[in-house]
C-alpha cells in the first residue's frame, strides 16, 4: 500500500514521525479535572489565535459544531444555514437528534455565502407563530462547495447585521486555516466575525484527532458541561493536543503547498485551475463510481460526492510526485 495516493479527503493523513515523537513526550494530566497542561496550552493558543476568550478541545469537528450551535440556540429554536452545509449534511441530524434544535436551509450558489439571502429568511424571536432563528451557521472553507473561501465582505455584512438582530453566528471552521492562507485574512478576523467557532486539527493540519471550539469564557464553561454529557470528556488526551500544537507550529505554513498542488492537479486534468481556491478539486459530469473504481484499481483513491461528481483533496501526504502519479492515472480516465 506504500504507493497508494489517497485524494479522498485531507482527513486521511497519518501523523509524521516528528509529530509522533512530540505526542509520545507530551506532558499530560486528567483533563476532566482540567489538569492536562498540553490541552490547556492548546486551548489558550487557539483562543488567542481567533481573538476569543476561551477554547475547548473536543474529539471531533462534529462535536465542536454541535456544541457550538447549542451554545447559541435553545431547543425549539432554529439554526439557519446553507443547504450543503456540513452541519446539516454530514452530522447525522445531531442538532435535532441530540439538542432539539431545528435547522432550516437556504440553497446557495455552490456554498458561497450570500448574507442577504440568509437574512431574508430569518424568523424573529418575538413572533408567537414562528420558529425563532437563534443562529446562522457559516462554513469556511466550504466543503461541498469545493473548498471555496467565503467572501470577507459577506461575512462582515452578516456579522454587522447579526449584532442588531440578536442572531448569533456559528462558524464551522474545519478548514478555516485553508481560508486564511488562501485569502490572507487573519484567523483573528475570521474569529471575531463569529460568536462560536469550531476549528479542526485533523483536516489539512494533519493531526490525528481533535477540534477546538472557541467562544467567550462563559460559553466555553457551558460547552465543558455539554462535552462531558456527550461523552467527550477525555483524560490524558494531552498526547492528542500535543499533535495539534505541533501541527500549528509546523503544518499551518505549508497549506499553500496543498493549494498549489490542487491547482496543478486541476490544470493537468484539463479543469479550470481558477475554480480551485484551496485544497479541493471538484470534477463534474463524469460517471463517478466507474472512474473511482478504475482509479482505485491503479492505486489512486478519490472521493465520490454524487453519481456524476468527484472530489480530489490534496494534503500533507500527497507531494508533487503524488500529483504526477494521480495525473497519470486520472488523466486517461477523465479524458473527454
Ligand atoms: C466542513 C466540515 N465541518 C465539520 C467536519 C466534521 O469533522 P469531524 O469529521 O472531525 O467530525 C468536517 C469533516 O470532514 C467538515 O468537512
Quick tags:
336 residues, binds pyridoxal-5'-phosphate, alpha/beta, seven-stranded mixed β-sheet, three-stranded antiparallel β-sheet
Please characterize this protein's 3D structure.
The protein is α/β, with parallel strands linked by helices. The chain is built from 14 helices and 12 strands. Strands 2-8-7-6-5-3-4 form a 7-stranded mixed β-sheet, with helices on both faces. The protein has a 3-stranded antiparallel β-sheet with strand order 9-12-11. Strands 1-10 form a two-stranded parallel sheet. A hairpin with a 2-residue loop joins strand 11 and strand 12 (309-313). Helix 1 (17-24) crosses helix 11, helix 2 runs parallel beside helix 11 and helix 12 (255-268) packs parallel to helix 14 (320-334). The longest helix has 15 residues, at 320-334. The protein is globular. Pyridoxal-5'-phosphate binds at residues 11, 60-62, 65, 86, 139, 143, 172, 174, 200, 202, 211. The site of pyridoxal-5'-phosphate has 13 residues, from helix 3.
Query: Count of DSSP E strands?
Result: 12
**Anisotropy-based shape:** globular
Calculate the terminal CA-CA distance, rounded to whole Å: 30 Å
Which small molecules are bound?
pyridoxal-5'-phosphate
Mean pLDDT: 97
**How many distinct helices?**
14
Order of helices and strands: EHHEHEHHEHEHEHHEEHHHEHEEEH
Q: Helices and strands: which structural class?
A: alpha/beta
Identify the strand order in the major beta sheet: 2-8-7-6-5-3-4
Strand content: 15-25%
The helix content is: 40-55%
Largest sheet: 7 strands, mixed
- Unreliably modeled segments: none
* Cα-based radius of gyration, to the nearest Å: 20 Å
